[in-house]
Specification:
With about 325 residues, the protein is of the alpha/beta class. It has helices at about 60-70, 110-115, 135-140, 165-180, 185-200, 230-235, 255-260, 275-285, 290-295, 305, 315-325, and strands at about 35-40, 45-50, 55-60, 75-80, 100-105, 120-125, 125-130, 145-150, 210-215, 220-225, 240, 250, 265-270, 300-305. The strands form four sheets. Strands 3, 4, 5, 6, 7 and 8 form a six-stranded parallel sheet that branches. Strands 11-9-13-14 form a four-stranded parallel sheet, sandwiched between helices. Helix 4 packs antiparallel against helix 5 and helix 5 runs parallel beside helix 11. About 50% of the residues are buried.
Length: about 325
Amino acid sequence: MRTKAVAVTTLLALGLAGCGAEIAPKEAATASAHYPVTVRNCGEELTFDRKPARAVTNDVGITELMLSLGLADRMAGYVMPDDKGRIDQVAWKDGYQRTKWLSKQQITKEIALDAKADLVFAGWHYGFDEGRGVTPQAFRTLGIDSYVLSESCRSGKGTERGVMDPLEALYTDLANLGEIFDVRDRADRLVADFKAQIAAVPRPERRPSVFLYDSGQDKPYTAGKFAAANEIIARAGGTNVMGDLTDSWVTAGWESVVRRDPEVIVINNYGDTGAEEKRRFLTSFPPLANVAAIRNDRIFVMDYVDLVESPRNPAAISALAGYLRTVPAR
């Protein structure tokens, strides 16, 4: 989630057949035999009477959910900072050229209105923010539909927390978008491809312990039990040392990192602070000097979009699993 600014690369080759298929570019947003359709999103039923024609997305993972389904022609544009990661290695890279980059900040009501949006696709802490008054309800009052990233339902309170595992959230959102935009066959193929890709990943013989470092020097910002990164680490064959924290992205203490002595540190690469600068901090920070990952120089860098719900998750799992297989027993 984009609440901190941080900044290398991971292998992201996704050889997915058919995921860049296109939709008729000027098709009117009128009703058809497919509509109305109703999907369940973060515990709420949403009904669409017609296919959205001017969707606006916030953040890279959310945008790429649309692009991976070949829906660039159904987008009025996207909102995100510069850090898209390695877009040259994703199958849907051309989609970025077929829609408009509306802002490098966060989604606002003004951006959506200026774009004549009929759907805003964002998430809690991924654009939607009660403090800024940018909520699905606020867009509803403007006559604009919203769809909430399923991973971010965890960032709510009470019954919203822990609604589904992160990869299940990915598959659910792809299926729901398939219904909303009448491309369910394409969505089903993509989900099947992703599941097969993850199932084929060779796991390490044992589970190395992993600490996810997002940002922070006084205290580290990291991934807890409900963050997508926790499941990505687990599916790659590792164990998130902060996986017992019943939160998504959360601030911890350095003393807890030292006590848990991770064998590998994964750096979350995004924002203004470069991964090399983060690496220098970690390797020169005295409290970490005797942590196994620092002693043995086992630091692996992944892009932000790898570690939040996105269609890059399967390739990210494969890349991290390959690295974890190189970690010897203690």
